Amino acid sequence: MQERTLRVLEFTKIRNTLRTLAVSEMGSEVCGALVPLDTLDEARAAQEETEEALALMTVLPHHPLTEYTDVRPSLSLARIGATLSPRALLDIAGCMRAARAAREGDIVLLSPASTSFDRFRNFEERGELFRAIVEELA
């Protein structure tokens, strides 16, 4: 899309408003990186993902959309053997508790949760890679 078109549509303003509604810093980063889709097929696929997520949130009484701390920097430090602060350890513990909160029989929604930024030829290729990763976790 042309820069002028985005400016007329106030896309940046909309994207910034969306960032303020994210429940986590990582979610805010994803919102800040959003760009308009180029094709109708891409837009339809994205709309289907949104509708599916909304349907699951409606059906599940306790959906997992809660605020949490981004522990990626602390995990990177831990990987190289650094000593973590008590705050960082508590944040990681909170993340682990949230992951363990899912009980057997619960529905756990796994999602790529971000745009692919042209790393894949199409949504099918992205979905196949995601499916393979999820199967490795199972």
In terms of DSSP E residues, the strand content is under 5%
Average pLDDT works out at 76
Helical amount: 55-70%
List unreliable stretches of 5+ residues. none
What is the strand tally? Answer: 0
Report the C-alpha radius of gyration, rounded: 18 Å
Cα-to-Cα separation, first versus last residue: 40 Å
Overall geometry:
extended
Biggest sheet record: none
User: What order do the helices and strands follow?
Assistant: HHHHHHH
How many helical elements? 7
Secondary-structure-based class equals mainly alpha
Which short descriptors sum up this protein?
single chain; 138 residues; mainly alpha; 7 helices; extended
Please provide a written account of the structure.
The chain is mainly α. The radius of gyration is 18 Å and the shape is extended. It contains seven helices and no strands.
Question: In a few lines, what is going on in this structure?
Answer:
This protein has seven helices and no strands. The protein is mainly α and 138 residues long.
Topology summary:
Layout: H1 3-8, H2 11-21, H3 25-32, H4 40-59, H5 72-79, H6 86-100, H7 123-137
